[in-house]
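Email to the structure team, subject: VWA domain-containing protein model.

Hi all, the expression group asked for a predicted structure before they design truncation constructs. Nothing fancy, just the tokens so they can compare against earlier work. One-line instruction: predict VWA domain-containing protein, return tokens.
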Amino acid sequence: MMLAWHWPWAALAGVLAALAIIVLIVVFARRNAADDTPVFSMDDDLNTEHASRLFRQWRALGRLAISVLVLALALAIVLVARPSQVDAGDERASSRDIVLCLDVSGSTLPYDREVIDTYLELVKHFEGERIGLSIFNSTSRTVFPLTDDYELVTKQLTSASKALKGVESQDDIDKMSDAEYQDIANWLEGTQNRKDATSLIGDGVVSCAAMLPGFAYGEANHANADRQRAASIVLATDNVVSGKPTYSLTEALDLTQQTKITVDGLYSGPKASESDQTTTDMKSAIESHGGIFLTQSNGASIDELVRDIQSRRDTDVENKAKSSMVDAPSLWTLALAVILIIWIVCAWRLRR
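Reply from the structure team: attached below.
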């Protein structure tokens, strides 16, 4: 760290003021010395050895007190100039946009809460990431848009986790109160606006991609794909489609790939279905478009899978050097305090 000064001009002003005071003291002292005031000598009284020793001690203490006072004045001038340090360090800043894209059809709801709870923990360590949440079934609903207001994100994710608490099993659903039914219905409102259709995966992915800058329906191409922030979608679904979607999963991934949006897949379904054709199709589609696809087949929990995806995408984090000037009066203040204590001791001894 390098020493610097916030107000160097204040030190110069302090020095000039001190010099002016000293000059005035000297001038008045000389005027008083020129007076014809009678002077009484104590030489005869100081001829004894004891008196001479006390006088020498008194004179030495007086000189020390003056020296200490001058030093205290110098330190005070230094403090007025605000001694500072240039503090150089690294600032961690992420330039990532993350959209949580959750399938909220009946077969995936029990797993969505685990994804939400994991991100509820991860968001505590976010620094600069923007995160959004979209849920879909036959239609999509934006729970909250891209934001780095982590207080809002935490509040929304906590609310979602509480709403999903009662749907982890059929027994839980059977035990739900009317108020709990209403909470989950309110949270899912807007996701089932098409009849005879559920879990339209491709449409859900496109809706999630539309939350990211640089993506527009029907205009996903390299011309509008330039982005300053890395963009990724975490898609949690079991890929079981019922009904006729506007976009298939592959078509949706083609659009996101053209706009440089990475889609990572998280299988949210029972382990027994991981070998189904729908699951292998999802894995193939995600990985062929540069995404990461993870399941629970290796014994990992949903929490571990989400953290795995997050850690693999942490390469987008940037470390930026920053410098700032901060006040550093500590040593100077300590020195001034010590000097003043010495002066007080000297003054006390002189009065005795």
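The chain has two domains: 2-32+50-82+329-351, 92-319. The radius of gyration is 38 Å. Ping us if the truncation boundaries need rechecking.
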